[in-house]
Design goal:
Elements (H helix, E strand, L loop, with lengths): L1 H28 L12 E7 L4 H16 L3 H4 E7 L4 H5 L2 H13 L7 E4 L2 E3 L6 H4 L9 E8 L2 E8 L8 E13 L11 E9 L3 E2 L8 E6 L17 E8 L5 E8 L1
Length: 258
């Protein structure tokens, strides 16, 4: 009788021990919940001109990388700043030329092509997608969600954590994603263009935000009617990004196709 009870007791202890260990193993090996992941968009800002010979090589390299990696355009945004007597910028007037010149001075651009990735100047001649979208990125401080209502675009900005800095700026740009022409508009022979800037909106200063606090900015009357001498844009992207003016780091970016 004693042996029987002893056996049953030992069996019970073994089952409990195995069950507890199994639960601990499952918990230890579980993956993080999807909501803990903070998506990040990389912003590329390229300074170029239609008369610049090396700018064509840079443009071709970027085009080849994007064409060979279709999903890259979901994670990387390219803005083309045509400066110093660029054909497309001249076609849109002196006001835009002034804004783009200000942007080039912001990055201390002294030669073209020049490329900034998330606010830091890098080689304008990338060799692979890893040069544009590294495998390891720091977690962003913000989430940006864009919605369209007619000619208005609203940016909903949520702080992932408490923000105390007063140097964070919201910047917004309208671009034509890409187009190809049969006749080069400039002396360098380039016919494929991506990310041509059509308009730039005034900067907005972000105030201090608590964790999960939301800041909303609406851009009214976004113009989507432009004509160049050699073509008329028909597709657009509205880009909003947040930049820290103390170190020029781009903290987050987002876009919406119009």
């Amino acid at each position: 009788m004693i042996c029987r009870y002893t056996y049953l007791f030992l069996l019970f202890v073994s089952i409990c021990f195995y069950g507890c260990n199994s639960k601990l193993s499952t918990s230890t090996n579980s993956t993080p919940a999807p909501e803990t992941i903070r998506p990040r968009i990389v912003l590329l800002e390229k300074f170029t001109a239609t008369w610049c010979g090396p700018c064509v090589t840079s443009a071709d390299k970027l085009h080849q990388i994007f064409s060979s990696n279709n999903s890259l355009s979901d994670n990387v945004i390219l803005i083309r700043y045509g400066i110093w007597d660029d054909y497309y910028t001249k076609s849109l007037g002196s006001s835009l030329s002034t804004r783009l010149d200000e942007r080039s001075r912001y990055y201390n651009v002294t030669g073209i092509p020049s490329l900034a990735k998330d606010g830091q100047v890098v080689s304008a001649f990338p060799n692979s997608k890893d040069d544009l979208y590294p495998t390891s990125l720091g977690e962003p401080l913000y989430k940006i969600e864009l919605t369209q209502d007619g000619s208005s675009i609203t940016a909903k900005i949520t702080a992932y954590e408490t923000i105390t800095s007063s140097s964070h700026k919201i910047r917004a740009v309208l671009i034509e994603p890409d187009h190809k022409v049969s006749t080069p508009p400039g002396s360098n022979g380039q016919t494929q263009f991506e990310g041509i800037v059509l308009s730039m909106h005034s900067d907005v200063s972000l105030t201090a935000l608590s964790k999960d606090e939301v800041f909303t900015k609406t851009y009214d009357n976004v113009k989507m009617d432009y004509t160049f001498p050699n073509h008329k844009p028909s597709t657009f992207k509205f880009i909003v990004f947040i930049q820290d003016d103390t170190n020029k780091h781009v903290l987050q970016a987002a876009f919406i196709t119009l």
